[in-house]
Every structure is written in C-alpha cells, then in structure tokens.
Design brief:
With 812 residues, the chain is of the alpha+beta class. It contains 21 helices and 31 strands.
Length: 812
C-alpha cells in the first residue's frame, strides 16, 4: 500500500489505494489479495463488466458472470434491489466464491459519467480496515507538533512531510525539496548518509541523536531523535525511506540545566579559599551555560571583610577574581585581578543592585561602562548578550557573575535567567563561607603570630631560627609553636609543641601553654618534671573547657635544655617526634629519645635523655606537619627531613634560609596541617671562661673560697666586681656548708654576665626572708639578692644549685 494513498484514506479511498493484485487464496480467503475488484452493472443490476481483479477475488471469470444479476453473486443481501440505483452507495456484503465459500468485502458504487451503468469497487474488509487504521495512525502522527514525518523517494527527495521550518511565515515544506534546502549543508549531508544506508540495507534506524540547524537560522541548534525505515512496493523493491524526527531540544535543554545545577552543587564550595571557589564557579559555567564567564568580587571580600552597600553609578569597587576559560582571548580591560571600571547610573544597573539577574544586549552593556577607557576594552569580541547575576548572601552583595554569549550562540532565555538565579544563590553562599573562613583564619593567624616568639634569637648558648607555615585548608591554624627561652647560667631551653584542634581556640590554648612553659622554665625544672607539671595544666584546662571540648584538649611537646658550659643537652618528649641532630661534619640523624604520652594523659612518667653536642651542631625541633604529608607516613617524612638537613644545613648558610628551604621542599603545596621548624646552632663557653672549685665540708673553707674567687676575677680582669662577688661567694658557700650536704662545688662563668654558682647535695629549696633585728642568721640570700642583678635556684637529680648573675658591662 502506497503511503500517499493512506494519507487520504477513507471508505472509498481504501478502494483507490489497493492497486497491486495477487491471486485469491483457497477456502474463501484471499490473504495475498492486495488490490481492488471492479465490476460494471447496468441499470437493472446485471453484470456487464468484470475485471481480472474481480476474478482474482471471487474465482469467477468474466464469461461466467456476464449477463447474470449481481444478486446471484451475493450471499447475504437482505432484500434484492430491483435496479442498480437502489444498491447502497457503500456497505459490506459477503460474496460467493467459486469454491463454495464466501468472502467478506466492503464495496462502493458510483454512476459512470454519461452512462446509466454503475461502477462497483470491492476489496476484502480486513484490507480496508488495515488501510483505515494506517491512515488514522499517519494522520495522528502528522498532527503531533513534536514529531516530524518525512517520506523520501529513492533519490531522497521529499515526497511528503508535515515539517514546518522555524520561520516567521511557518509554511510547511513543499514536496520536491531536499534536506539541504532546509538544513545546514553539514547537517543535511550527515542525515542523508544515514538515510541512504537505510535505503540500501533495509536495516531500520532507531533513535539516532542528531544535532541540526535550520539553514535560515544556523545559530539555533535543535536536538533531534531520528528513526527511519525503508519503504517497499508490492514486489519488495525499495520505494523510498520514511523518517521520523522527534524534537528533544526542550528535554535536552532541561537535562543540561539539571546537569549544570548538579555540577554547581558538586564542584562549587569544596574549597574555603575565596579565589579557588570563584574559579570553580566560573569554570562550571563554561561552555555549558555561556561562552565566557567571570566572577567579580568586592575588594573587601578578598580580605574576609563585609562589603559596603552601593547604589547608583560610579566605582563599584569590584575586582575580577576568576575568568573562564583562562586561555581565552580576553580584551585588555578584563584580566584576573583587574578592577571593574566605573559604571553609569543605568536602569539595568539599578535592577542588579536590587538583587535581580539582568540580561544586557551589546549596546546596553557598552552604555553601562563609564570612565576614561574605551568601553570596547571591557567587552569580549563578537558578544551579543551578557547576563549579570548578583552574588547575594546573608544580606550582603559580595560581587557578581558575568556570562557572555558570542558568535552564533543562542540568546538567553527566561528559563536560563531563573537557573542563573539559583546558581548565583548557591555560589554566593560558597563564597561567603570562604570569606568568613578567611576572616577567621586571618584572626587566628594574627593571634598565632603574636603568640610566637621572634623568628631568630642570638644567645650565648646558640643562635636560633624558627619558621612557621600555617595550614592552607581546613578550619584554620592548628596551634603549632616553637620557643627559645634563655635560662640562667647562659643555658637555653628549646621547645616545640602541637596543640590538638584548630582555629582561634587552638591558638589560645597554645598561648596558655607557651606562657606556662616559660614560667616553669624559670623554675629551672628538669625536662621530665616540667612536662609532668604541664600535663597537670592540660588536665585543668580540659576541666575548664566547654563540655563538648573535653576530649579534644591536649598537646604534644618536646622540651630541651642546652648548657653551653658543659656542652650537654637534656630533653624529654610528651608524644612529640624526636629532634634531628646535624653535626658539624654535615652528618644528620634523629636523636634516640624515648617519648612519653601526650600532655592530655596524666599519671605517666616522662624520661629525660641527655646528649653531648659539639659547638656548631644544629639541633632541629619540628612538628608533625613537616614530616607527615599526604603521600608519606611519619617514618618516611622523618627520613626525608634528615636527608634534606644533611644536604642543606651548612655552617656558612643562615639558619632562617635553611628553614625556608626545608619547608618549601618538604611541605605540600596545600598543607593540611601547620608546619613548625626550630633550628638551633649550638655554641660553647670557652674553657678559660669558666672555673670550678670543690668546697670542703669545713667552715674555714669560706675564707679559701673568697680568696680563690678573688684570684679568678683578677685573672679575668674583673676587679670592679671583686667586692660584691666576695660577699656573694661568702654567703652562698656558707649556706652550702651549714645547710647543704657534700659534695659541694663553686663555679664561676664569664660572659656578658658573671655567673656565680654553688651546688650541693641537699635538695631542700632555700627561701628568701627578711631577718628580724634579733636574728643571728637569715640575711645571706637577702644580701645576695641586693648585690646581684638576679639570682635563683635550680634542682637536679639529688642536688640543687644556687646561682647569681652580675652584668659585666655595668661594672665597666
């Protein structure tokens, strides 16, 4: 059946469409019959004409029916019409077949022009029903505005179609047109190649996605789903191709918008860095939403501050934070970091400032730009539409998203304006979170930097350099610190610690611990004793903390004390990584120290380790952020640090430069944790600048001690300090003999101060008091405190040392 006939199918049209003929089947059925049986009746209803198709249908030849009344061929006429004019114009009857069966047919009669005879056309009723249903289906498909049907002949010329190009007149495509007359040449060639393959192979094509553009409107792309099958004539020969096109443009656009919204939710806001967040927002918009995109932020936002509200024209105080794609040919006025030019008081600008997403045409956008520079410097080449959406969050306008469409791209639609409003809302929240984090991070950084000691120190015991690198992500600083604390007798305490937690609370805890260590260091406790007391402090801080923070209060710490006279260093660790020692010959190794529990754990002992240090050795203290990176565990990180120190730590290189080099080479580009490094290059007091004298357990030894001290000061050229030193020696030696236990020792050290030390084996703490008039003793330490610049007492294992310091420079 030809499709063109089906297009006009009706009860009569079904007879006109059945043109091919095949023999009638046996048993009264004609399954292969696909034509029209025709007969001519005279005015009395006698058969006067009989066609070959009528013979195929009934089995009777023309000679057998000529001259016979038509009633004899019909099996079920309800009443016999007397004349042919009384036969119904159309209807259904059962015809007799030569073999004795009957055939259900549908017929139609019509008078022949200029004659009294009638033409009767008949076809099997099932065939007519098929034609009717096919025609109804074709009409229904043709009526669908989203389904286009095109029938092509073997040359792929359009025979019939319901297609209507997207033109102002909306006229349907006329038969005889080619696809290239309607579609862009490239799209027409692509579809014709596919249809030609269907025509040649006979293999149907189902749902092939195809993007096409109308020839008269190439900028607008349509998404089509193409299905095609071959048409054949009655003999099975190719007669053409039928193609069905379903327009999926709206569905594809909706899916693309949904995917874009999902991509924004997935990619934007993963970072707390303002610039990274802005760049993610720009990148996700190109090329899905526009050809070019930029994110502009208020100057205050970059520093974490709240921007001021602005209305009207003038300087918007915005700066380009991100561009996408970065490699595009941007005009000279649009560069990352550039200020946005002054704007005129345009009505569309007012709408933007009141929170609306605005679409500008090219001319409106050029009119918006004000200032001395040509407006063209701020408009990408070949732009035809610009969309600007405010980044509005928590009552603040943080900036704007600007999207350009250029060239042959489609203009913005109302749906896309709504979508951009949602994207801008989510992007604004992400940028505001990054802004607030930046503000908190800056505050924590400022607090952390204020709480840390000077980067470099220079003491008789060592020169030190500390380097601190804050984390680049997460919740802020993590409370890492270092310290170099000068102690009496030219000694130096070195500290490295790491507080649990992040942000300002961690920095505040770090400050409290650093102050506590300095106080405990002044008590001149042994390293293990100092850490024990520090652990007690952590427990008290945990009790004072809010209920939810009890379990996160803690720290690790390494405390070391170096004595430049004895050239020995005593250290203890509370869960902290071991220090690394770089010897003067350049070799480096981790110090074998037994770490105790972190400071949050009480009741566990700490152990002091003592090592000898040559002058010029470098002792390196650090926190785990330096050795524990994303791609290395602590052991590997410690080995990398040791190797790097052996290579870069040279005597002729400043310690601060070495520290910076180590951080650059060992720490990730975006560290997850703070990294702290303290380097101390040790010094030694020359042997000729210190002297020792053993104190006999005899009261008469006080006079000998004064004489020995006088001779030593005279040899050092410190005659101006003879008198106060004699008095200090007398009092300290007297106390050691009277209240202490042997052995006892007197030591003098010369540097920028004169240190006088008396050590005995009694661990009792001396106490300074004011003696009454009638008291015979109790004035010794009071006298020492008056004569010396400072004095104190430190305890060691089974001994104590009372010391005093007198400035040598003041004596001169």
């Amino acid at each position: 059946m030809h499709t063109s006939d089906v297009e006009n199918a009706d009860p009569a049209g079904a007879f006109q469409g059945a043109t091919s003929v095949s023999g009638a089947g046996r048993g009264g059925r004609s399954p292969a019959f696909d034509g029209l049986a025709a007969a001519v009746l005279d005015d009395r209803g006698t058969v006067v004409g009989w066609t070959g198709t009528a013979q195929d249908l009934t089995g009777f030849c023309a000679d057998e029916v000529h001259g016979r009344p038509v009633q004899e061929l019909v099996a079920d006429l309800p009443h016999a019409p007397r004349r042919a004019a009384q036969v119904p114009a159309t209807g259904r009857v059962r015809l007799r077949h030569q073999c004795g069966n009957t055939i259900d047919v549908t017929f139609r009669t019509t008078r022949l022009s200029g004659s009294a005879n009638f033409l009767v056309l008949a076809a099997p009723t099932p065939h007519v029903a098929d034609h009717r249903h096919g025609a109804a289906l074709l009409r229904a498909l043709s009526a669908q505005n989203r389904i286009t049907i095109a029938l092509h002949d073997t040359d792929l010329t359009t025979v019939q179609t319901n297609a209507t190009p997207d033109t102002p007149d909306g006229r349907p495509i006329q038969p005889g047109a080619r696809l290239s007359d309607v579609l862009c040449a490239e799209d027409a060639e692509s579809i014709e190649a596919v249809l030609r393959q269907v025509l040649e192979t006979g293999v149907p094509l189902i749902h092939r996605n195809q993007r096409v553009s109308w020839r008269h409107h190439p900028a607008r792309r349509h998404a089509l789903s193409l299905s095609a099958f071959r048409l054949e004539d009655a003999r099975g020969r190719p007669a053409g191709v039928a193609a069905l096109y379903t327009d999926n443009t709206d569905q594809l656009r909706a899916r693309r918008q949904l995917d874009l919204a999902h991509a924004v939710a997935e990619r934007v806001g993963c970072s707390l860095d303002i610039l990274r967040t802005a760049q993610d927002l720009a990148d996700v918009l190109v090329p899905t939403f526009g050809d070019l995109a930029a994110v502009e932020l208020a100057d205050a936002v970059f520093d974490g501050d709240e921007p001021a509200e602005r209305l009207g024209g003038g300087d918007p105080h915005l700066r380009n934070a991100a561009l996408a794609p970065v490699t595009a040919d941007w005009p000279p006025g649009i560069r990352r970091g550039n200020l946005v030019p002054s704007l005129s008081d345009h009505p569309l600008l007012r709408r933007f400032q009141h929170g609306e997403t605005v679409v500008y045409g090219r001319d409106d956008y050029l009119a918006l730009i004000d200032g001395p520079h040509p407006a063209g410097q701020f408009l990408p080449h070949d732009t035809h539409a610009v969309m600007v959406a405010p980044l509005h969050a928590r009552g603040l306008t943080l900036g704007a998203i600007v999207v350009w469409r250029t060239g042959l791209s489609e203009p913005f639609t109302a749906d896309e304006v709504d979508l951009m409003r949602q994207i801008a809302s989510r992007g604004a929240l992400a940028i505001d979170n990054a802004r607030r984090y930046t503000r908190e991070h800056r505050a924590a950084m400022a607090l952390q930097q204020r709480l840390l000691p000077p980067a470099t120190t220079d003491t008789p015991a060592a020169e030190t350099a500390g380097v601190y690198l804050p984390a680049n992500r997460g919740g802020g600083t993590s409370g890492d610190w270092y310290d170099a604390i000068p102690l009496p007798a030219l000694r130096l305490a070195l500290v490295a610690g790491d507080v649990i937690g992040r942000g300002i609370p961690a920095s505040a805890t770090m400050g409290r611990l650093r102050a506590a260590i300095q106080t405990l260091a002044d008590l001149e406790l042994e390293p293990d004793e100092l850490l024990t007391r520090l652990a007690d402090l952590i427990q008290r801080l945990a009790v004072e903390a809010p209920p939810g923070d009890h379990d996160v209060m803690g720290a690790t710490c390494l405390y070391a004390v170096y004595d430049p006279v004895t050239r020995r260093c005593a250290m203890a660790s509370a869960g902290h990584p071991p220090p690394v020692l770089v010897r003067p010959n350049g070799s480096a190794e981790a110090v074998g120290i037994l770490p105790g529990p972190p400071l949050a754990v009480c009741g566990m002992p700490y152990e002091t380790t003592t090592i000898d240090l040559e002058p010029g050795s470098v002792l390196v203290l650090y926190t785990d952020g330096l050795v524990q990176q994303a791609t290395h565990d602590v052991c590997d990180g410690l080995q990398r640090l040791t190797d790097a120190l052996a290579t870069s730590c040279r005597p002729d290189r400043p310690l601060e430069e070495t520290g910076r080099t180590l951080l650059d080479s060992l720490v990730d580009e975006a560290p997850r944790d703070d990294a702290t490094l303290l380097l101390a290059r040790t010094r030694a007091v020359p042997a000729e600048d210190s002297a020792h004298w053993q104190i006999p357990a005899d009261p008469a030894a006080v006079s000998d001690a004064r004489g020995w001290a006088t001779r030593q000061l005279t040899a050092w050229g410190l005659d101006d300090l003879l008198l106060p030193t004699e008095l200090i020696v007398s009092e300290l030696v007297t106390n050691a003999i009277r209240y202490g236990r042997p052995p006892a020792e007197l030591r003098l050290i010369r540097h920028h101060v004169l240190v006088c030390e008396v050590t005995d084996s009694n661990t009792a703490q001396p106490r300074l008091r004011r003696a009454r008039t009638t008291d015979e003793g109790g004035r010794g330490l009071f006298l020492v405190a008056q004569l010396a610049e400072r004095w104190g007492c430190r305890h060691g294992q089974n001994h104590k040392t009372i010391w005093s310091e007198q400035p040598i420079a003041r004596a001169h």
